[in-house]
Amino acid sequence: MHPTAADAASKFDPSRAGEYAQQSRIALAGYDACHELSACMLAASLGAGRTAQVLVAGAGGTAQEIVCAARLEPAWRFTAVDPSRPMLDLAMARLAEVGLASCTQAVQGVVEDLPAMPLYDAATLIGVLHHLPGDDAKLGILKAIAARLKPGAPLILAGNYRAYASEPLLLAAWGERWRMQGASADEVEAKLGKILQGADPPASEEAVHALLAEAGFAAPQRFFGSLFWGAWMARKRGG
Fold it and tell me: What residues does the Methyltransferase type domain cover (predicted)?
């Protein structure tokens, strides 16, 4: 396992994995909408009703990207990769609960662990990039995904961007979002402190574009935003 991926995965221990479904929906206003639109963007890109092999990097947790995509496109098949065993187990349990486990292959590890062939028709990387420290780790996972995609294949990339402290009003609104869900003032302060110390989002949308370009993707199109969160679709160059 790549050391940076191991460091990121270590944060998602069994206790954090267990609360992930609830906490992620508070942290990201529009969580379900983002995942639904991600599936719609992929279907619009690939063509409705076709078969496809989809790589889902960082799939652990709710498996929401697979749930939405599989319900929209039942002929798609998924390879779910995550370095955190508790998070991957949680994802597969969710898929079993909704009757979708049979369409998904689970792989504990990182994208680099996957074989070079066959190539995938599409990929997703949702809620992962801001957990990887430094641009080298971010670029590494994007390059690994690009190497396993067919030319012209779409990637859905979604996550936080911009340094949190650089946008004090958005950060304060994020705190109010937690307060709206019943957190006390002390709990809000603790959550914001943990956020400020525990993640390393790309510095700007331009930085996201630059990472994608260097990894081998064409200019992305943003289709969703919520406070610090953005979601883009980009195609692997060459198609």
Answer: 58-154
